[in-house]
Design a protein that fits this description.
Blueprint lengths: L4 H39 L4 E5 L2 H14 L11 E3 L4 H10 L5 H9 L5 E5 L6 H13 L2 E7 L11 E5 L4 H22 L5
Parallel strand pairs: 1-2, 1-3, 3-4, 4-5
Helix pairs in contact: 1-6, 2-6, 3-4, 4-5
């Protein structure tokens, strides 16, 4: 039987809509809590640190850029860093301390109490993301995680857990970037940087 591209296309949208609706229903409170924590940190001179692997690394970079440069309108920059972009630091740490420590080491160097550390992992089981959240918590940073289902191992280390209610990696990743961009837009408004 030949592949039915039209049926596949329709089924993907049906599944996407179902996960988007479930996410909307489940995460309003968690989203508001994370927004408040980020706004409090930035108002106090803190910053937001994003980190993850693969597609989650791309999300970390995307969201940090939205905050430091602009989202919808020109405005003052918001302090944010993606811990996924410094290849010299990542490869030096991977070589000298092991890949599991690439985010924890950068948080130790760059993080300050009151900053917000946001780990992104679809499975919630990425060892280096877990180590980063653990380091952040030890240092007094506010910890947050974007995950799927119950958040995996990140849940116990997160002050703010954004766990997309789906076991499907693609759908979780779609909701992560949607919620991340919503966080950027809401943060601009909450801080009074745009009208």
């Amino acid at each position: 039987m030949p592949f039915d591209a039209a049926a596949y296309y329709k089924a993907e949208f049906v599944e996407h809509r179902a996960v988007a609706e479930a996410t909307e229903a489940a995460l309003a409170g968690a989203f508001s809590g994370l927004l408040a924590a980020c706004a409090k940190s930035v108002r106090a001179g803190g910053k937001i640190l994003f980190f993850g692997n693969g597609g989650s690394a791309a999300d970390a970079q995307h969201l940090a850029a939205e905050l430091t440069i602009r989202y919808k309108k020109n405005r003052a920059p918001i302090a944010a860093i993606a811990l996924t972009t410094d290849t010299s630091a990542i490869t030096a740490c991977g070589n000298d301390y092991g890949f599991e420590q690439i985010f924890a080491r950068q948080i130790e160097a760059l993080g300050r109490p009151g900053d917000v550390a946001i780990g992104i992992s679809t499975s919630g089981k990425s060892a280096n993301v877990i180590a980063g959240l653990r380091q952040a918590r030890t240092m007094g940073l506010v910890t947050a995680a974007f995950g799927g289902q119950n958040g995996g191992d990140m849940g116990a280390l997160s002050d703010h857990l954004i766990a997309v209610p789906s076991p499907v990696t693609a759908r979780v990743q779609e909701m992560h970037i949607t919620l991340g961009q919503m966080l950027c837009g809401a943060l601009e408004l909450e801080l009074g940087l745009v009208d």
